[in-house]
Amino acid sequence: MGKEHILQGIKNRVLEIYGNECANSGEDIGHPHKRPGLHHIVFRREGGKTVKENLIPLCQDCERTTHFLAGDK
Description:
The chain contains 2 helices and 2 strands. It is an alpha+beta fold.
């Protein structure tokens, strides 16, 4: 089983847990054209792991805002 398959499985599970909604705005992000992102609650650079307990689904706008506020470019 490849890494991409495992990550897709985690992504699908997190989206299922959150009902295909952005954890911040509540926007429906379940459609492929929405390109939902998974956000690490504890950033990877701070030791956060890519596990469902450390991931939340965010729409593109919320993902950009979150990283902007964190000082990412």
